[in-house]
Amino acid sequence: MRIINYANAICEAHRQLLKSDPRVFIIGQGLWSPWYAGSSLKDLDKQFGKNRVIDTPVCENAVTAAAIGAAISGMRPIVFHPRMDFMLLAMDPIINQAANWSYMFAGKSNAPVVIRSVINRGGEQGAQHSQALQALLAHIPGLKVVMPATPYDAKGLLIAAVRDGNPVMYIDDRWLYEIEGAVPEEMYSVEIGKAAIRKKGKDVTIVAISYMAKLALEAGKALAKNGIDAEVIDLRSVKPWDADMVCSSVKKTGRLVVAEAAWKTCGVSADIAAVVSREAFDRLDAPVERVTLPETPAPASKALEAGYYPSATDIVKAAEKTISRRKNGLQSALR
Amino acid sequence: MPKTKKAVSTGMSAAGQLGLYRTMLRIRLFENCLAGLVEHGEVKTPCHLYVGQEAIAAGVCAALKKSDCVWGNHRSHGHFLAKGGKMRPLMAEIFGKKSGCCGGRGGSMHVICREEGVAGTVPIVAATIPLAVGNALANKLKNTKDVAVAFFGDGATEEGHFQESVNLAALYKLPAVFVCENNMYASHLGVLERRVENNLHEFGNVYRMNSVRTDGNDVLGVYETTLEAVARARKGKGPSFLEFMTYRWYGHVGHRRDMDVGVKRKAELEDWFRKDPVLLAKNALEKSGVSVSKLDGIEEQVKAEVADALAFARKEPYPETREVSEHVYAGRVK
Questions:
Q1: What does pTM read for this prediction?
Q2: Is the sign of the CA dihedral A150, A155, A160, A165 positive or negative?
Q3: What is the ipTM of this complex?
Q4: A289 in catalytic set
């Protein structure tokens, strides 16, 4: 199969959506500049015109809301926020309006909008150019949240999001843009809410989100050298997340590490730990370990950044911690 | 400077003018009935009553086609009824009944009637203004020639939503009409407690929009002003900002006329009772030769409609409690 990178896979999904569905348009800041979107929206304005690829004034709130209004009115807009931090200015339209719309009106109206935002961290950008706020969005009934980690999913989940009929938050990480992978040339969907097993294993389950899925696979290889057979799951969708796949994996391995480059408190990792502790309680041989950011805003200096973002080594250590833990006698007896 | 026009003559037919009167009366009598229900505790959902402002909903909506959408706010029973919504599903919704326009999920502040072009109403102040802009953008992209109308109060112009929205609409020359109902209060604060001057219409000038301030209690004036704005929008000449000066007779929320949310406004109210938009329209019709018995007949019909809606809402069943989690997500869509 053809190999392309993550950013180009996103771009191809946009191109095919614009070409195949006249209801689709893209709106947001930085669409006509290569600086903000990398190659993920390259030349779309030239191919489809500035009426359908709309670079806007500096107003995240009204632009996001206008896209939602257009979606309610029969269009299929994709909003672009080059940095997720700035999307916070649009929380009223996202949370109060789009998320509630179907429910408030008993399904008589819906908001089929895709709101794409980028985690654009690192590079000494500091606290307001670096945040990963998926947990905040996943908390809200009515929203769906996807975080693809591979070029294949980047394309397939964007197409699925546009076709979904609900407000879907599509979050990508700039650190993934150069990653290459096999991507079919035709249009296809990746089902929202389904995780993917990236490496089969029997000793410990590692559930990873977005860029952490890449690191988890590296960690899985390192663990294998030490004789630990890790199962690596790329969550892909954060809301809804694939509890069936995660729980059945944990029931097999008895151990779980959740890796998410976001904060621990009320994070997606916390929800996964809570659900697994209920659904696989009898099968857990160790407490759930979480690999996350420290509970601080993002720093600027590279000396501080070095202590901020979790690495594959952190995942390895967490996995080893679950393995080294002495089995709980009672739970082993229940097996 | 904005045009401050006074409608002196209108091309509207006698039947059309009677229609405006009927619409205003439907709002007035529906809401007076509702105020009683609120006072006696039969209705619990917070009701922000529109009485006193009826000429704006009636005049604006009369200038629209069914396919033009209106977007409302917390005070939108009038918009719903004027755009063609029926009393039964509105009253049932306010009662929280299954046959309400939102199946009991919306209450007074969230109402919808898509088939008549009521796109939705929400209480977050100014929140539907950019949604209406999106509706206008969709109309432009689809080339439908339909117009999107946002109804909002004077307080909404203080929100960032509003400023961002009018800029977008003006920049893209969108078929939108911004209808500002300046009733001089945002909840308990008067307009001059919130800004240095009561000059909202000047916003339109900054964005180079057609901008009009006019009497919001003169239904024919509202109609004519809107007709012109709608015609401009359909022709691709961009959005308009229409500021209609008016006054709400009830308090911010609920049935009280005076001393609502701590505001004493008895003297002001007495002044505005003399500018009653419904009575002004009725007097004008009488003067133009419409018989008293004809006008009384309309009133009887509207009273019967309100009574019917009330009886309907009272007897309809509530939604099943187990339905609470339905409609969080849309079903399969194309």
A1: 0.95
A2: positive
A3: 0.94
A4: no
